[in-house]
Amino acid sequence: MAILGNIIKGVINLTDTFSFESNPIENQEKVLKNLLETAKNTKFGEKYHFKTILLSDDLQESFADEVPYFDYNKINKKWWSKLHKGKTDVTWPGTPSYFALSSGTTGKKSKRIPVTDEMIDAIKSSGIKQVTSLSNFDLPADFFEKEIMMLGSSTDLKEKNDHLEGEISGISASNIPFWFKGYYKPGEEIAKIDDWDERVANIAENAKTWDIGALSGIPAWIELMMKEVIKYHNVENIHEVWPNLQVYTSGGVAFSPYEKSFNALLGKPVTVIDTYLASEGYIATQIRPDANAMQLNTENGIYFEFVPMNPDYIKEDGSLKKSAPAISIKDVELDQDYILIISTVSGAWRYLIGDTIAFTDIEKAEIKITGRTKFFLNTVGSQLSVNKMDDAMKHLEETYNTEITEYTICAKRFEDGEFYHSWYLGTDLNADENEVADTLDTFLKDANKNYKVARSKALKGVKVKIIPQEKFYEWSDKNKKKGGQVKMERVMKEDKFAEWEEFVN
């Protein structure tokens, strides 16, 4: 009998019993007020008159009127760069203890995003919320005695001036509570290995000595890790190595494109729980099994705003136009794509995180990620979002009985002067590329009226190239972005796509 597991599960159930349904609208009002109060004497707070905003009858409206939108390039150039020159009290009191390095899905140069002690506390609080919500998933008591494999970036953070630098998954893992370290795998020594392939090789070698009950990490890299473990031990599936694996906590990207290939590595079904941890903060987590959605962490250090997704609001570089209207959580609507804007306890203000979301339940503040602003393909008016592209990939998987975990697309002008959607699909499918292109084109015409109109006008056609999925991982490796929080570019501009095609060919 799992005595310890029963005790832990009992504590979780008790905590959940005494917790109450919080009000997202009230949470957000309190968070914004706290942010403004704390930062009112910073250089940023003085520039944008936080003290005056705090006197307003409508904080949210006054805040939106006074403070402009910022993307990373804008806020870093005007404000965060001063932190690297020894300035204090810039956009948040004092100086940050960490900088999260994030090259995201574009470019080789890492962004350096401040992570304050208050943000670490907020991430921990959101993590506790995730743990207590496990009571909703009807997991057996012995699950709570098993170990958890957290596959992120290296926890060997680099010291620079008066702070430490690394990816947010490495920063988070280096701050796990002392009581959790006994459950945490691959353990501190292996987690510090900087080279991703070497780290995974060590995991594979030690895998059978661990009793893993849960996995956590970005789907593409978790899959590669499982493949290496399966290969090393010469078994059919991961459950032959970790028979008690019951939960997978996904994060950062939609899980649906990976579902088929992920399940193929399992010996039995596992519970999949979505989370949304970005370099800028812990955005949302799934709290119940009967909803394919995540609840915004409205009470933990992040104030959210939402800009209705409209190509007219987005500049060529992916940033927002000043005229783009933002609303608070009290005014959102169901099933409307919104560009996510955040202000945080790390000193990000009205910050364009780059993701688009849609609400699936307003009362519970539950959302799903629908895409990236930079991955919105509208070169010739096709208005394709990532969720529509993901749907198209699922359709191809079902039609051709295959797995497509990675893909990329560009609206490319060919030699005839016409625009074509040029797709690269990562799959071992043996099929005629022209036939696949026709199937893809037909599906998107039926699924998206703007795409159908574009195909009758400026978009001449669709071209498909089928390549091994390993090419996508090699591309990430070439760009020094293997593992961790890295996600493959779903949409590329023509200059980047030219580099991609040269690499593939």
From TrEMBL:
It holds the Pfam family GH3. One of its GO terms (cellular component) is cytoplasm. One of its GO terms (molecular function) is acid-amino acid ligase activity. This is GH3 auxin-responsive promoter. Residues 390-495 form the GH3 C-terminal domain. Residues 299-363 form the GH3 middle domain. PANTHER family: GH3 DOMAIN-CONTAINING PROTEIN (PTHR31901:SF9).
